[in-house]
Write the structure tokens for this entry.
Amino acid sequence: MVNFRTVYQRVSVQWRAIILLLILALATVTIAYGDFLDLITLALFLLFIASQVFWIGRIVDLGKWLFPDQPRVRLVVIADLVYLFVIAYSFPTTIGQGHTFRSAYYGLSNIVFEAVFWWWFVGSMLAFALVVAFGTVERTTRVAAWACRKARQSTKGRVAAASSSVADPVSPGRRHFLEQTAVLISATPFVVAGYGLLHSRLDVEVVRPRIPLARLPKAFDGFRIAQLSDIHISPFTTADYIHRCVSITNELKPDLIALTGDYIAWDTGQQGEVVRTLAGLRAPFGVFGCLGNHEEESGTEESITGLFMAQGIHILRQARAPIVLGGETLNLIGIDEPHGRTEAEWRRDVHRKLQQIKELMMPETVNILLSHGDFPDMFDRVAELGIDLMLAGHTHGGQLSLDFVHRGLNLSHLIYDYTSGWYEKNGAQLYVNRGIGTTGFPIRLGARPEISVFELSRT
Ligand SMILES: [Fe+2]
């Protein structure tokens, strides 16, 4: 069914085209905007196009195998038309809506369509990348084997025949094995993407970091703070699932609970529901939070803060909440995401927010900052201010991650330095929570949803 050599040759040809396009894109975007983010988006888009061209070719191969009497051109036309129809049908819900769809699209068929679309998107991209990698390794091995043979022949003084080339020294048995392996490799990412969609996305992990703070008052030694982040209520992060996360958090019996923003996805009509669900959180020293970029971008900062307040949850907006225990104090600070319609406005607001943090800090006290973290060097800047501990979210751990192979190997690391877990700089500490919800594609692989509960310690 699949001729591996043909598959590889096609990938190889397309790969050269991709490299060429990326170089052109790099030159164009860099010259026109100098915007690294645009470049990443464009590169992913080009990779997606190349992968789709490749997979349409495989579907045509399959069609040829199933219907050998049909002309190949006809199969190509049918496959292209079906593909374009599916993309056009999904455009209003999946693509046209950006991160996720709004309440008008909450019908079951659209949810299923969105899930299938993203499963295909992630699966086909990963499978394409794997086939390219596999083909490259196989090709390199063959070239190395050919070079060894040539060297051996030269040593023996024999002149290689003119027809001797890289061309095919592979035995039929080995060819069959390679073809089967290629099929297996191609199929695996689709299975893995399905796992990430149906299971891993909801497979909450409780992480229990111990945070040593040299200046921590004795009364707070062993004090426990639970953190929930990036809730993103949506058809893929339902109120039932959030309620389960709330129950898990309560069972951990934290002293205080910190929420670090992004409560909605894009549907502003869901803010009441997410607040009602989070209102089930219980901690003797209270539930505090900050807002995320989704509240800022959707214009719900005021409204959701009011809804939280009505439920007894304190959203700290450029505000502090001293936590007192045994006559000692721990200073909790919350800050909004920077605002700004232009780059210059945004930078001015970043500067303003840093000034506000400075003014909210309490001297001779442990200062803990809740900041969603939607700008790359936030932690570096607050570390310079002397913040002891910053709790953040936003990155979702990249959602697709190979952090278990090497820390930082995840999608989010294309933009951010601090993407998941604990970091330290100049005596300041940062913890980046992977969140419990998703945006963009509703898939998590290697970046499970996370509830963290920190135990503060003096040593
Ligand atoms: Fe988020």
In short: DSSP finds eleven helices and 13 strands in the chain. The first strand starts at residue 205 and ends at 207.
